[in-house]
Specification:
The mean pLDDT is 98. This protein has one domain (2-227): Ribonuclease Z/Hydroxyacylglutathione hydrolase-like (Metallo-beta-lactamase, Chain A). By secondary structure, the protein is of the alpha/beta class. The strands form 2 sheets. Strands 6-5-4-3-2-1-14 form a 7-stranded mixed β-sheet, with helices on one face. It has a 7-stranded mixed β-sheet with strand order 7-8-9-10-11-12-13, with helices on one face. 20% of the residues lie in helices and 26% in strands. It is globular. Helix 4 (147-154) runs parallel beside helix 5 (171-181) and helix 5 (171-181) crosses helix 6 (201-209). 47% of the residues are buried. The structure holds nickel (II) ion and manganese (II) ion.
Length: 229
């Protein structure tokens, strides 16, 4: 698989069978590279309704080729905005399609739609690719102990973890999250997009060095890719 960081919490994954997945489709974020792939994607996943995650979903999901996967309340919102192919699901369940499995897991955060109404619960996703590789996108979240269950049940090789602090986990909490999830690789996200997201990779690595379990930290600058076979 090839995983490309588009800045903030936005990632593109190309699966072993060539399916294109976009997570938290804010492709117009301030960190975004110039050569963002604007699709069409096979799948767009949305962790919660805040503008920095819902992002450019409506623009990118105009064709029914693209399945948008989100919690029920966001799906209803997207359908009302004319998105043709939105799949609603909820936490704990999995949606299977074309040899891929999308499992919605909990996140500790809030979620409101652009009009201020309830956007359902925030979530993370575990994506199981055709070859069994698993990627966990934690969404926006604080640290919670049930991350241990996510680690035990799904054993993700790669975890995408927020480290920016203020609205999400900071570096210290993110280092502890790695102890619960135990991914082989961790990729920090949701930091330095705005001045208030102060967490740094250096702090994250420093806190991690004090812990028992040491995943490999992969730092992607926007536009860079990580390839895993
Ligand atoms: Ni948020
Ligand atoms: Mn956010």
């Amino acid at each position: 698989m090839e995983l490309t960081f588009y800045g903030h919490s936005c990632f593109k994954i190309v699966s072993p069978q060539g399916k294109k997945i976009l997570i938290d489709p804010w492709v117009s974020n301030p960190q975004a590279p110039k050569n963002v792939d604007l699709g069409p994607y096979d799948y767009i996943l949305i962790t919660h309704a805040h503008g920095d995650h819902l992002g450019d979903a409506i623009k990118l999901a105009r064709t029914s080729v693209t399945q948008v996967i989100a919690i029920h309340e966001i799906q209803q919102y997207l359908l009302s905005k004319g998105v043709p192919n939105a799949i609603g699901m909820n936490i704990g369940g999995s949606y299977r399609s074309n040899g891929l499995t999308f499992t919605m897991v909990m996140a500790l955060h809030s979620s409101s739609l652009p009009d201020g109404s309830y956007g359902g619960e925030p979530c993370g996703f575990v994506i199981t690719l055709e070859n069994g590789l698993r990627v966990y996108h934690a969404g926006d979240t604080g640290l919670f102990y049930d991350m241990k269950l996510i680690g035990e049940l799904y054993q993700p090789e790669v975890a995408l973890i927020p480290i920016g602090d203020h609205y999400v986990m900071g570096p210290r909490e993110a280092a502890k999250a790695c102890q619960l999830i135990k991914p082989k690789f961790v990729i920090p996200m949701h930091y330095q997009t705005f001045p208030i997201l102060t967490g740094t990779v250096e702090e994250f690595k420093a806190f991690l060095s004090e812990e028992d379990y040491q995943p490999e930290v992969i730092v992607l600058r926007p536009g860079e890719s990580f390839i895993l076979k």
